[in-house]
TrEMBL record:
Protein name: ArsR family transcriptional regulator
SUPFAM superfamilies: Winged helix' DNA-binding domain (SSF46785)
Domain (HTH arsR-type) ranges: 16-98
Gene Ontology MF, one: DNA-binding transcription factor activity
Length: 114
């Protein structure tokens, strides 16, 4: 199985973060992962309110979030465990994630928004 790509925090670009969070569904998924505090499995993220996200769409959203540097993913058997990199990103770009999620009216639950 191929290893997953995770950019080093020094390589994370603000335009990649802006692109990743420009999609409202991805912003919601990211807010859920960040709000969990440690880990969010893909199966736990498969619904947005009443709507169920198809696995293929969810996989693509998670890939964009991971490659932008917003989350770190680990394979655990057949599940993928997703962890927020809010503190790392906030150290590099203070207030960026909070400003974006506040504009959407979402909260990360870890103090990164507001």
């Amino acid at each position: 199985m191929r290893p997953l790509f995770h950019p080093a925090i020094e390589d994370v670009r603000p335009e990649a973060i802006l692109y990743a969070l420009s999609d409202p569904e991805r912003a919601t998924i990211f807010a859920q992962i960040a709000g969990v505090g440690s880990s969010g499995t893909c199966s736990a993220l498969s619904s947005l309110g009443e709507r169920v996200i198809p696995k293929s769409s969810l996989s693509q959203h998670v890939k964009v979030l991971r490659e932008s540097g917003l989350i770190r993913c680990e394979r655990r058997g057949v599940e993928m465990s997703n962890h927020s990199r809010c503190s790392e990103v906030d150290g590099r770009f203070p207030g960026l994630i909070a400003a974006i999620l506040t504009a959407y009216g979402r909260d990360t639950g870890d103090g990164a928004s507001g």
